């Protein structure tokens, strides 16, 4: 507590005390540096928000300006490209934004010879830029080669190019690919004077492609292609630099834990700050100054200001972080070596206060070390394990320092990856009949069955609860009896969140379609793992029919794979690896990858002391987006480093802020920026602690992908060149992110428009073949996704590799308005209202302002819905509470505030129960 003596001493019992930096300069300093580490496998998405009408019009589609009214300190998507011609002159190609996260570059060459294409993103070369290509005359009679595989590619994916021999006369064609890995070459004679060539690189680096005709190199040969690592492994550290201000007063350690503090900047931005015991015995607050001017610090206990709160703190110009004043030195930002500490220095002495964040992404997850010299300078080193090009982002106070992002060429030896594979034959499951016992099994070890729930929705739209039984430890089965033929939707939830794989498709009667696209897989072993411990996951092949399931695990060590067939169209797979690191789990059915395969899994070192850690004060219900939330972590004597990150439904990752509260207790603060289910990864010495990752729901909207349905001609047989559409019904599914992706032989022109029941997607295929349409709602497949669509007709475009087209829409909540299709169809109830029994004083007499009560017994009355309504002299009563106490027994409470005669109606379904309507005197 704040003592009276202190209050009298400061002489301001009710007025806030104004503190200035001049009075407290001896305690205003950078007092703490902390480190958090996170990783992810995809490129960081950069966004900016500004007022639309301020954007200048652009004729060529290239948005290249800096807005003055940005709402967040991020970078703008800018794409620039230059072509250096053989004469030395620079030409400009045409850049087309495909509006799906990619851009296309078109160029009409004016000269023959070697050209250099420089592609820049936010002012910096993209990975592999500048690209070299050779331009030849069409009428030269020479053999020429063209295509992306001559300049760039990605490991594990075929790199393709075309050789043209039109008009070149007779001669033998020879091809060779040399590089860091053996590359299998395949080719196809197109019978039109061209040959399509494909090679598969399995390691990143530079590949030399030699093409000879009649024992002589063709023009431009040998070509050099830059092959980057599959996926982008990312590592990040944050070094916090906070300010500290002492607040007057004396407070006990016990009271310190019950307080929370926030600081409001002059602009109105309010964020939490941390309270800490100072060496003087007083408490202090720590925060990162972002603005100049007077800040207000509020310290509250149970929502009420403590004595002297709010406090005033003034921030002057020299305290606010300025990224332009950070000095970075060292050759490690131009080139580096694998398996070596590559060191550079950062000087923040003249840059004010601000957090320093460093992220490195490239072919491998580079280990980062940070040495703080305690004088505002730091030495930072990174240690990559694979050669290739890396992107280094260095930010101070949320802004890039000069030169960032840096492109670094890393050379040296890579690591050896080992692969283990098993194959198992899967028999088709017998056809399920109406009225038979249906079973869907799944394994989820280490949970309580009380938190599991399941529902089954029939093709007619009737949703009913399903029974869940625990067959053996950790193995559960959903039981239901279908009443009609067709595709049923089975939703299985744990703590109100769909388990991996849910919602499931379950066909009653003969299967309409079979194939790899109908196989599902899910479980912790496809998300994360631990060295030396079995990593388990489920595979459901029931809907795919019979076939061969191939499972492969590739990574730093060989895996021991175990397979257990549950004989019901599902199986349990576990694998054990002896070394930690990044692994790829490939699942193929009849030689085709199942949806979302291959899965990227980080296997952490053995848990060690991480098992000692425990979570406290974790939010029990949903938290709000754009508001910070926090929980506590107790170390319980474990020695090591704690780090945490939060992964949003869109897969965007953000670091959590970790603050030492006590010698053994930490506060972990996270700031969700979107609605949906987030995963919070808490690691100790790089290893997940028990229960991590923790799932938490953000926002009140219950977005349910099980309620989304797709229908229409666009899911059936289609023809090339014809516009076809389908309706995606989102009624009663909540507001979420709808993502539609079509993979097939050609790109498809696709658009999405809002209609009454949801969204209409329209697309036009150009080549015949099979197309696969993936429909996801908040990153989760809807039932039936991906859909296999057969396309026939003429070829209206040139054939190439598989093409992907996608559209993403932020939906609004929709409710069914009736008509042909309604979102919810009421089940057919069988009940008898005359068998409902009622008793209690509340059926005859009621008292003002008190809870009046009666009970109902509908145990013998079948199944239906109970309706209770009370109407008085001036309208309905204030409130009615109905509580189901089990087995169709109900307790009803109601409250009235006006005297007079009331009418009490009790209905079981559409029929009054005996005695209803009742007359009640108040």
TrEMBL record:
Entry GO MF terms: actin filament binding
Filamin repeats: 80-135, 135-227, 225-315, 318-410, 408-508, 511-603, 605-698, 700-791, 828-922
Membrane-crossing residue ranges in chain numbering: none
UniProt main location, coarse: cytoplasm
Keywords: Actin-binding, Cytoplasm, Cytoskeleton, Repeat
Cellular component GO terms, alphabetical: cytoskeleton
Coiled-coil stretches: none
Entry's localization field: Cytoplasm, Cytoskeleton
PROSITE patterns hit by this protein: FILAMIN_REPEAT (PS50194)
One GO biological process term: actin cytoskeleton organization
Pfam families linked to this entry: Filamin
Family label: Belongs to the filamin family.
Protein name according to UniProt: Filamin-A
Record organism: Aedes aegypti (Yellowfever mosquito)
Protein's gene: 5572167
